[in-house]
Queue: 2 jobs
Job 1
Amino acid sequence: MSDRLPGFSTLAVHAGAQPDPTTGARATPIYQTTSFVFNDADHAASLFGLQAFGNIYTRIGNPTNAVLEERVAALEGGTAALAVASGHAAQVVILQQLLQPGDEFIAARKLYGGSINQFTHAFKSFGWNVVWADPDDIASFERAVTPRTKAIFIESIANPAGSITDIEAVSTVARKAGVPLIVDNTLASPYLIRPIDHGADIVVHSLTKFLGGHGNSLGGIIVDAGTFDWSTGGKYPMLSEPRPEYHGIRLQETFGNFAFAIACRVLGLRDLGPALSPFNAFMILTGIETLPLRMQKHCDNAKAVAEFLAGHPAVASVSYAGLPSDKYNQLARKYAPKGAGAVFTFSLKGGYDAGVNLVSKLQLFSHLANVGDTRSLVIHPASTTHSQLDDAAKVKSGAGPDVVRLSIGIEDKEDLIADLEQALGA
Amino acid sequence: MNHDAYPDNYIRGILNSVKSIAMVGASPVNVRPSYFAFKYLAQRGYDMIPVNPGHVGKELLGKPFVASLSDIGRPVDMIDIFRNSSHIMPVVEEALTLDPLPKVIWMQLGARDDAAAAKAESVGIKVVMNRCPKIEYGRLSSEISWMGVNSRTLSSKRAPAPTQGMRLSLNRMSVGGGDTAASDRAAKNKTGQS
């Protein structure tokens, strides 16, 4: 009962879970049910009015999902979390709480291609206007701030080239502008970087990647750092004003430092509907138990592969922040001392055709559009994940035509290097 | 006491030991936080006393309202103040005239008055500020975990399924205050305390 801090690996196994009260089951059960019975009419009314702790309907919350939520909140050092159907769904739910039609948010130009599309096209149709900034030029964030700016969005380790963002510097800009900093921590996972420790107010993940880790289940999660004051200036009415859906409750007043996570649940998930399947939550939870072991292996393998590629005569350049010569190496040493992640790019002297040739000859690497799997993966971003960008935007986001992206798995590194060697050599 | 980050054992000790709680500013309006905090604490077995001069003659969940702390007429263990920070001091001053003194003065989420706290602590009263006892009880028992809140506690024991009126064990292993240090720092900056 002493206030002792358990380590990261202990939290990865235990946080949020305890033996099932009814059966004693030690693994977290899959509560595969849509709904939960009420004790009586008063209990039902209390639950619907957000006055009592308990379950109503799986689109609002589910006991299996709740274990996943508390576990990721604990690993990130946040006050609460909300799991949803995908990382993309998480981004919609977050911005719905923050932006009204006509508002703006600033986003780093180097992002997962899917996020660039979502921000540019889908969100525009909601009247949420993205303003791009350059993560290598912090002043560009400052210049982008207007009175309509409601949030800043960055990736901790940025897709596709694995570049590292100076989270603290961007957080200073956000604080000065009076808006929350949202950090997509998918490629780092909390094992490598805990953005809240560096000034993030909201952390978002695609659970599909390293957290789940096995390439078998989609999921997304939103972590509330509990750091942002939503009440100032009436900028965030979803949190600060009486909510007509809930008899005039003010969420910040009622829920304090986890009000944002509650808003995402009771205003976002409840009304937009992207609920996570409890089965997926179970699969992802099982993955998280080994996150510290896997992530270290991913990073160690990635460094070995990057070193091999950097020395190969067919390779023009390698972008991996874990290499001492890389332009992001200083930031990697500061933010991710255990390893610079396992997703990075390299370019071939033979250009586009050499890239296509390499992908076709690889035997162990799988050619597919995902990252953060136990298996090693390869893709040509310019023709796939980033294909909807124009040529200039491709280059700006690090996905030029000669670039190949790798996501290094947890196989034996000697086998990965041998596979690359045979594919590059022939 | 460092009022920016309370050790779990401090909060746990208070919630495990007090039996009677006078809630100043309790509201009969069933969408106000004071109403549902009152209801929850009553359901978890605390002897609740609603204090609100505007509702004398009425009852809150079967408990008669009293106008002020001095009208309670029996010892109370804890005073839970559901008022804004600017209204804390007079309540604390009245509490200090009670005989016997309360053991705990608790100020709700959003309410903080360091001078009033220092006054109460100088006569041996434990003080909690800017917290909700319902949230803390729910957190330490992990009952709050249904909504994805980080309880900052762990347990490998099988807990009973909670039913209405049941006291829950708060004696889980604490992860400590460290994991929400960021939110504690933010609260500190907001109130201008150092």
Job 2
Amino acid sequence: MTADSKEIFAKLSELLAPFNSKNIELKPDTEISTDLNIDSVSVMDFVMEVEDHFDIDIPLNVLADTHTMTDMVKVVEQRLAQGGSS
Amino acid sequence: MIDLFDKHHHTIERHSRMLQMGSDVVGLASTQMLSPTRAIIDGRETVLAGTNNYMGITFEEDCIAAGKKALDEFGTGTTGSRIANGTYGLHRELEQELAGFLGRKHCIVFTTGYQANLGMMAGLAGPKDTIFLDADSHSSIYDGCTLSGANLVRFRHNNATDLEKRLARHDPESGGRLVVLEGIYSMVGDRAPLADFVEVKKRQGFQLLVDEAHSFGVLGPNGRGLADEAGLESDVDFIVGTFSKSVGAIGGFGAGDHPQFDAIRYSSRPYMFTASPSPSSAATSIAAVRKLKAEPERRARLADNSKRLFDGFHALGLETCCDTVSPVIAVKCPDELAAIVMWNALLKAGVYVNIAVPPAAPNNLCLLRCSVSAAHTHDDIDLIIKLFGEVVASGAVAVSA
């Protein structure tokens, strides 16, 4: 992980905390929906928090291939590189 | 080998827990329908307060007669798609009747309300387009958006400012832009602040679709829905609706004034690859739409009943999800367990309501959701209030200050 992606990982962990009711430890390969057992709407609500924090759009169709924390970090990096537009 | 059912174990456990607490929340059967507002459930006569039968129109003599006549004359089913052998005169007549009711140039009938949203989203938007949808949209909207292949951007519920922020980030030259709202949101009963969204539309430019599933027949001086109530019909490009609520049948529709609207018939898979509505359902729908037009007093009765239930709940100190009176009145419960206990107690006491828990209900809410009918009597409404007083307000549920 680069310094930037570590920072994004840390921020994502912070934003995910309210949804992680069982306080499961977040690792790069943690699957956000299945490992934390959070429903589809909660995942989308989490993504909305991410969008607002980074001022980017993450279209829902992108999420189909986004499972782990590392996947999510990559999506944020890509969207930031694109200037945040959808 | 991995069993395909392994992934469902959380849901299966959740359902088993529900079963241990009483009746099957998601598998209840009405063994006899006595009227739009009465059924036999578990051998007991039960007042129905969760049917979405807003107009109380399922047992009207003329609708039933129209359905029987269609059965006699057209048979039990169409055995075909609208684009093959499945379009009967009845389907055309229903489309014309609806277009007239809505004051729209075009209307397309789909086989269910769910498919109406699937068909409209997939017919309107494609992979290069972007659909901006309200976060609390119905599953059929989400599924339709997925089917369309469009980019999907979700904005905060009923928040026109949040939508505008997202529109501003989007390149309008990259493809078409469709914004999707609902007239009345099904779980909570709140309306979209349409005027705010129309202002954003004027500044940012997009095409606007309003799903009037729960507001068709219910809102507006003509019963056309939220856009009618708000006086903003000309700013709404497309309307979606269903026959399974105010029309008391099954099916759905999309309507609009776009000159190319009919292209949806030849480009929308949920329209093309399913059998058309049965003749009897189409025929009762025609009769029911005519009734909605001819009997505006149904809307007035529904509004009166809704206010009576809303005021009654508030007098009990119950916390409802929405401050505006609508036929959907959802009472907040502290958690899923409490909701299930209270739902069972209400059912045993003789009233059926819907239970809504996450993810079907938004914001982690656990709700006892009532839907009011024009066919409820004041005595029915008072009984529902009394039973909520005994079961819900008696202490188990949070009481608002």
